């Protein structure tokens, strides 16, 4: 599947504009993932960031703080991550595109305001450069153990969108996508980086502004007398207004009606929460993105995301060199999950091998989708290092029909 | 082409990371290589072991870390002691050392070894902090991996505004030193 074609399809009928040249550092650069993420945010039109420094994410806002004044943006260093995560919500309602960046311990502190952003349909982007946890864990070393926290970390029922870049180039590209998805669905979107991708330096190509598609905020065209802030369109997404533009608005985390007024009853809850969930679930096919490598004839399907997908790619190549039909399924959008594609692959796969730098998170989703039709094997990592390709290769070899001795 | 693994190491404050960034930028942007650069350093601002690793390849790079470098630069005794054992064995490997700061032990590795008095050459320019660009020049001359033109363009983009001329002069000193060593009988 051509993911670009898919993105275009999603955007059909939707309003897109070209990027504001002021924020686009067009050219070929040698950047680390953190710096590329910052450039992605600026290219996407983000002009407000609030954050509290935490390794390995700090370089993103360090660069933002340097670059923002040149493009009319603002960076605020806040007292902590609670403040950062609510400051960006305030900036969004004041009309800015906004994001914050953090790592595990700070991500934990942001959970309350993530739920608030979901409930108030505040489009914002949160970047989590994952390191080893729990707690302060391994500040300077990689992990992928916040994947379930991104999905379920705040209380209550909700759906969000999360993307997982595997290179500095994708840190740039997917940050733009994250901002676009946030506007399109009015939902917090997570960029789930990791220390390796964040601190790794590679070539990053930033295209001209005319080649970068931006989804602008969808402001209402209705007059204040007719505007209902939480009346949704056919896609389940309401139109926005800016605070101070003369529209009556009430933004609350309490269950609310279409006017935005608290309506703390069963009927309002059913209507609101189901819509919040359905606006993502019913568009899962449009949001989901993945990359497939040599899956056509694959009997071993390796599933890996972020930096682990690159390492897994090497393992898949090594397996192919040994005559084993292995392939890689790489979720680019991790939430919502690519369940449908996995169900299809379960018809052909002899086994699924899931590699991730945690002790079993996304593997549970794979198991759920595969539903017992093939063995699902986890190649775990507690954090602190990326896998070595041989670890993944070993799991591939163990479950291949033609077994050869490793090395 | 199988990937070339390069490690540049020393102590914090020597400009090891900037040297690695300059080499990486030159190879990635002006020589058309795929380059993945990773760094490791302690929490200290100065002192402490510091190292930059580069994987360089014409093919896509999947695993971004080095396993056994074939080119190793050591600018401190600690880095020499720590990283030399991982250098690939044989005459195809290259070990570059800072002449005054590193004393190869009684059993040096089997690699081709070249020493550069980077600190002294930098001091001749009046600023010993440009020793890292002397090293970049020496690296370019000895390895032949990075063309001088690419290195100079990379330096222009990597060093602070207003210091380009000084850094380019440092590069020249290192490059000339390396070229002389290659032309002299060993």
Order of helices and strands of chain B: EHEEEHEEHHHH
Percent helix among the residues of chain A? 25-40%
Low-confidence segments of chain B: none
Q: Within the largest sheet of chain B, what's the order of strands? A: 2-3-1-4-5-6
Annotated CATH topology of the largest domain in chain A: Rossmann fold
Major β-sheet profile of chain A = 8 strands, mixed
Number of helices of chain A: 15
Query: Structural class of the helices, strands and pairings of chain B?
Result: alpha/beta
CATH architecture title of chain B: 3-Layer(aba) Sandwich
Summarize the structure.
With 407 residues, chain A is an alpha/beta fold. Chain A has 15 helices and 17 strands. Chain A folds into 2 domains: 3-214, Rossmann fold; 291-399, Rossmann fold, CATH 3.40.50.
Keyword list:
heterodimer; A: alpha/beta; Rossmann fold; five-stranded mixed β-sheet; 15 helices; 37% helix; 19% strand; B: 186 residues; Pyruvate-ferredoxin Oxidoreductase, domain 3; six-stranded mixed β-sheet; 6 helices
Describe this structure in words.
The complex is a heterodimer of chains A (407) and B (186). The longest helix of chain A is centred in the middle third of the chain and has 18 residues, at 168-185. By secondary structure, chain A is an alpha/beta fold. In chain A, helix 2 packs across helix 3 and helix 2 (33-43) packs parallel to helix 8. Chain A contains 15 helices and 17 strands. Chain A has 2 domains: 3-214, Rossmann fold, CATH 3.40.50; 291-399, 3-Layer(aba) Sandwich (Rossmann fold). The two termini of chain A are 35 Å apart. In chain A, strands 3, 4, 5, 6, 7, 8, 9 and 15 form an 8-stranded mixed β-sheet that branches. Chain A has a 5-stranded mixed β-sheet with strand order 12-14-13-16-17, sandwiched between helices. In chain A, strands 1-11 form a two-stranded antiparallel ribbon. Helices cover 37% and strands 19% of the residues of chain A. Chain B is an alpha/beta fold. Chain B has a single domain, classed as Pyruvate-ferredoxin Oxidoreductase, domain 3, CATH 3.40.920.10. Chain B is 39% helix and 21% strand. A 6-stranded mixed β-sheet of chain B has the order 2-3-1-4-5-6, sandwiched between helices. In chain B, strand 2 and strand 3 form a beta hairpin. Chain B is globular and about 35 Å long. The two termini of chain B are 29 Å apart. The model of chain B has no long low-confidence stretch (mean pLDDT 94). Classes of the chains: A alpha/beta (407), B alpha/beta (186).
């Amino acid at each position: 599947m051509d993911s670009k074609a898919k993105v275009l399809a999603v955007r059909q009928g939707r309003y897109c504009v070209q990027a504001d040249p002021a924020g686009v550092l067009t050219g070929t650069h040698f950047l680390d993932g953190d710096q590329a993420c910052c450039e992605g945010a600026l290219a996407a039109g983000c002009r407000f960031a609030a954050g509290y420094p935490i390794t390995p994410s700090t370089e993103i806002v360090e660069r933002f703080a340097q670059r923002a004044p040149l493009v009319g943006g603002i960076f605020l260093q806040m007292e902590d991550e609670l403040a950062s995560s609510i400051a960006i919500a305030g900036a969004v309602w004041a009309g800015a595109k906004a994001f914050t960046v953090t790592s595990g311990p700070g991500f934990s502190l942001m959970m309350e305001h993530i739920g608030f952003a979901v409930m108030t349909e505040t489009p914002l982007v949160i970047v989590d450069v994952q390191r080893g946890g729990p707690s302060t864990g391994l500040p300077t070393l990689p992990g992928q153990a916040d994947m379930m926290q991104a999905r379920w970390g705040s209380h209550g029922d909700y759906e969000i969108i999360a993307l997982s870049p595997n290179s500095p180039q994708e840190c740039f590209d997917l940050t733009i996508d994250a901002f676009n998805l946030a506007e399109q669905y009015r939902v917090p979107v997570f960029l789930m980086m990791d220390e390796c991708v964040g601190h790794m330096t590679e070539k990053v190509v930033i295209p001209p502004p005319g080649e970068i598609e931006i989804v602008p905020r969808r402001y209402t065209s209705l007059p204040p007398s007719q505007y209902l802030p939480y009346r949704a369109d056919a896609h389940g997404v309401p139109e926005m207004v800016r605070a101070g533009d003369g529209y009556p608005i009430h933004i609350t985390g309490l269950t609310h009606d279409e006017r935005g007024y608290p309506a703390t009853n069963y009927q309002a809850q059913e209507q609101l929460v189901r819509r919040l969930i359905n606006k993502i679930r019913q568009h899962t096919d449009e949001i989901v993105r993945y990359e497939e490598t040599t899956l056509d004839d694959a009997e071993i399907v390796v599933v890996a995301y972020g930096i682990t997908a690159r390492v897994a790619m090497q393992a898949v190549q090594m397996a192919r060199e040994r005559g084993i039909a292995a392939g890689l399924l790489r979720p680019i959008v991790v939430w919502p999950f690519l369940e449908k594609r996995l169900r299809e692959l379960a018809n052909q796969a002899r086994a699924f091998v899931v590699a991730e730098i945690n002790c079993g998170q996304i593997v549970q989703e794979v198991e759920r989708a595969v539903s017992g039709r093939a063995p699902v094997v986890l190649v775990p990592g507690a954090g602190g290092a990326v896998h070595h390709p041989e670890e993944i290769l070993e799991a591939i070899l163990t479950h291949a029909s033609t077994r050869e001795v490793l090395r | 082409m199988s990937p070339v693994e390069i490690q540049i190491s020393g102590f914090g404050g020597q400009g090891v990371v900037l040297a690695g960034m300059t080499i990486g930028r030159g190879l990635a942007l002006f020589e058309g290589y795929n380059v993945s650069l990773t760094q490791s350093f302690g929490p200290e601002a100065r002192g402490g072991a510091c190292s930059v690793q580069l994987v360089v390849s014409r093919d896509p790079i999947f695993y971004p870390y080095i396993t056994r470098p074939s080119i190793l630069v050591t600018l401190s005794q600690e880095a020499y002691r720590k990283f030399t054992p991982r250098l690939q064995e044989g005459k195809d490997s290259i070990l570059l050392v800072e002449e005054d700061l590193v004393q190869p032990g009684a059993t040096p590795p089997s690699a081709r070894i070249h020493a550069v008095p980077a600190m002294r050459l930098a001091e001749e320019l009046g600023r010993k902090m440009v020793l890292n660009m002397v090293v970049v020049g020496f690296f370019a001359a000895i390895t032949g991996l990075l063309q001088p033109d690419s290195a100079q363009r990379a330096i222009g983009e990597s060093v602070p505004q207003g210091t380009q001329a000084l850094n380019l002069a440092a590069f020249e000193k290192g490059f000339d030193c390396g070229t002389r060593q290659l032309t002299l009988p060993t």
